[in-house]
Design goal:
With 112 residues, the chain is mostly helical. 67% of the residues lie in helices and 6% in strands. The mean pLDDT is 89.
Length: 112
């Protein structure tokens, strides 16, 4: 699973390739960056680099735009999703810490 995450998150795809993959123009892609919907990295020469996750997000954005959803509404939706993911991650980390602490004290029994 970790390898899947790393390849999907690596920022290695050029804007031209992203345009071909998504069917969006380079101008549309830059616009979504301006609207804080995607966050490409920059190469040493200043070229934008995108990940496979960015490509998936751009396709999602394009679909929502076709349905008439405004970019500010999409951004708010993504922020809510991020907060929810962060809470779930925090909860799992705390549960893992509790399990680690009590497993040593209770002969390896897990508490969920």
């Amino acid at each position: 699973m970790e390898n899947e995450w790393s390849y999907k998150e690596r920022k290695v795809i050029s804007i031209g390739a992203v345009s071909e993959l998504t069917g969006l123009s380079e101008r549309q892609i830059r616009y979504y960056e301006e609207r804080k919907l995607i966050f490409p990295s920059r190469s040493d020469r200043g070229n934008r680099k995108y990940s496979f996750s960015d490509v998936e997000r751009l396709i999602d954005i394009a679909n929502k735009r076709e349905e008439g959803v405004r970019t500010d509404e999409i951004r708010m939706e993504y922020k809510k999703e991020k907060v929810k993911e962060d809470r779930e991650t925090r909860k799992k980390m705390i549960q893992g810490q509790l399990n680690a602490r009590f497993m040593g004290q209770n002969n390896g029994k897990r508490f969920n």
